Fold this protein.
Amino acid sequence: MKVAVIGAGCWGAWSAYLLQQASLDVALIDMFGAGNSRSGSGGESRVIRSVYGTDEIYVKMVAESYPLWEELFEETKTNLYTETGLLWMAQDDTAYLDDCAPLMEKWGFDLEKIAIDEAQKRFPIFNLDDVKHCYFEPKAGLLEARNCCQLLARTFVKNGGQFIQSKLEKIEEKNGKCTSITLSNGSKLEADFFVFALGPWNLFQFQDLLSEIEYISRQEVYYFGLPEQDSNNYTAQNAPIWLDYNPDSDLYYGLPSHHNRGFKIAYDYRTIPFDPRKDDRNPTPKLVENARKYIGQRFLKLKNAPLVEARVCQYENSIDGHFIIDHHPRMENTLILGGSSGHGFKMGPAVGKFVQSFLVNQSSLPSFFSLQRFEKGVANQSQFGQSA
Ligand SMILES: Cc1cc2nc3c(=O)[nH]c(=O)nc-3n(C[C@H](O)[C@H](O)[C@H](O)COP(=O)(O)OP(=O)(O)OC[C@H]3O[C@@H](n4cnc5c(N)ncnc54)[C@H](O)[C@@H]3O)c2cc1C
């Protein structure tokens, strides 16, 4: 079977790699290259964690993804994962964490509840004065995002796969099937099966299908400079990833400094619409100031820390915050992988595994990610169950 995978972000790259491992003939296509700066997978780092409220499917997918990440790093003798643990700081509403505790136990993850004074001793760089509850997820860490995608694409090519850097221009369909795609290099690619993993560009490619159920949001990420005297306390070797979970308010999260880049902080709130085809990626001064104010309160020694780097990225959101993994309704030999909604990187291996099992073992796709769910009506929310 010949398969064309279009899009070499985390989801497309994992799909191509796993299909190739199952001995299928695979072409991987991307217009800017794997893990490029405009793609959702293109930053320095992404968090892998397993707390997911009552959504067991994600806890299971994280549990399935860990060994696949590990196997990739072993096969390539390249480690792109750093375990830091994740400190959750919460106010009154802790249901998202408490509800997940039994699911985590079931899937082999620990979640420690820590008294505030104990947490303050363990994690001295944090100011926990206004925090009511702390939880610690020891098996959590960061994945070097762009490097992971490039490693997958390189390994795919090394193992005999065909990588084409070109733009998908046109999809030909006939009798309920996709017959070929035309690329901007002038070639026409025929295949038995087509996997479209275009990230936010899914929305433009499949406008008729997705315009009512997806939106793209502009997301900003900042790196602040570390204090000169004790910078080592703010690195991934000594500090955890953290998430300030407050469903009624702003949701900031951050990663300790890795590869000496600075202390990373991001704001999960969906700000304004974003068009990855043409919008500039300069940070918004007001949002930088908000982040600086927040960080100065939560990490006292980072008060007035200089901004050393910033990135503007985008989320490809489905309106209910859940992934979309389904056929295009008009073309049975296709899959659309989309709606990663700001939390899809960690689970790239599990998404690729769905694609592999579907094509190789004829396994069914999870109905949780079907397009059909939108016909019944869904709540407008983010991955954390907040209204979005
Ligand atoms: C700021 C930020 C922080 C995040 N943090 C986390 C996190 O901590 N943990 C986590 O799990 N997830 C996180 N996410 C989400 C995660 O990064 C995304 O869900 C994931 O990377 C999406 O991967 P993808 O392969 O679906 O899409 P993308 O990475 O966007 O890949 C799509 C690819 O398709 C290509 N393409 C598009 N159209 C065409 C075309 N016509 N022809 C050829 N190629 C095309 C593009 O060039 C691109 O490379 C974050 C996202 C952002 C933006």
Observations:
- The two ends are 41 Å apart (CA to CA).
- The domain at 2-376 is CATH 3.30.9.10 (D-Amino Acid Oxidase; Chain A, domain 2).
- The chain has a mean pLDDT of 96.
- The first helix runs from residue 10 to 21.
